[in-house]
Write a structure and sequence with these properties.
single chain; alpha+beta; outer membrane lipoprotein receptor (LolB), chain A; 19% helix; elongated
Length: 270
């Protein structure tokens, strides 16, 4: 899902990270959207690991689909909570360390939190809050387009096979892991799901992305690691939207007392 931001980059600079994460919808979208947009054959890259062998365990592939469906953001309603960390080998300023992650959605309404950034989309307005820089921005409510966020699960399964991923898995009494690996892929080299051995609920999502300028350089890979504490088919969205950030009187919007020290950026056109 591409988000067109207003042209006032000075005021909206603080929202950049939030926009990127919303485009992800969920962390894995960054990797899988590349598949939808690029249907041309992959370019050859320098071989750096001649020991790689493409092995597809079909039972593990089916298990991957089962676990994956529990974090599918195409669902009409869900709640996902966890702690997110990222490491960018090409840009250390983009690191995120153990940030609080919450994504709740019901229909076109949603609430999203990553560290100091919060976003909510109600029936009337979308609200962006940057607690670090003490800013609040209001924009018109947006429509969520599920298929732009995450590819169809069956298409994803076909992609895994067609683009040369090795699919393997391990299991013990506590948890299992399904790993997808292609060290030569130009966008996503590795995708790993850790799940509870009894409930099959996902516990951890790990992604390793290639650097587009130097895909063969492992040192410049970017990793996304989401430690999941809760996945649910019930959004509990009202609990998140209940917090009073702004007040409306007539056509005027003001910050609630709890946010009186924040700067309000009103981009509503009504």
């Amino acid at each position: 899902m591409k988000m067109k931001l207003p042209s006032d980059t000075r005021q909206l600079k603080f929202i950049g990270l939030t926009a990127i994460i919303l485009v992800l919808g969920f962390s894995s979208v960054l990797a899988w959207n590349s598949y939808q947009e690029n249907t041309k054959p992959l370019a050859k890259v320098k071989v750096v690991d001649t020991s790689y062998v493409n092995i597809v365990d079909t039972a593990q592939l089916r298990l991957f689909k089962t676990v994956y469906e529990k974090i599918d953001v195409n669902r009409a309603e869900f709640l996902i909570k966890g702690r997110l960390s990222t490491i960018d080998g090409a840009d250390s300023t983009q690191h995120i360390a153990n940030a609080n992650y919450v994504y709740s959605r019901k229909g076109n309404q949603f609430y999203f939190k990553l560290g100091d950034i919060e976003m909510s989309n109600g029936n009337e307005v979308s609200t962006y809050v940057d607690h670090k820089n003490l800013k609040v921005m209001l924009t018109p409510s947006k429509k969520v387009i599920p298929l732009a966020l995450m590819p169809d699960i069956n298409k994803l399964m076909k992609t895994i096979v067609d683009e040369g991923y090795s699919v393997t898995g391990t299991l013990n009494k506590v948890e299992g892991t399904v790993s997808l690996l292609n060290p030569y892929h130009l966008t996503c080299k590795e995708y790993k799901l850790v799940y509870d051995a009894t409930t099959l609920l996902p516990k951890r999502l790990y992604i390793r992305l290639s650097n587009f300028q130097e895909p063969e350089n492992k040192q410049k890979d970017k990793t996304i690691d989401l430690d999941l504490s809760l996945t649910s088919d019930e959004s509990h969205l009202n609990e998140f939207l209940a917090q009073q950030i702004v007040n409306k009187k007539g056509k005027d919007w003001t910050l609630s007392p709890a946010y009186s020290t924040y700067e309000l950026i009103n981009k509503l056109q009504f």
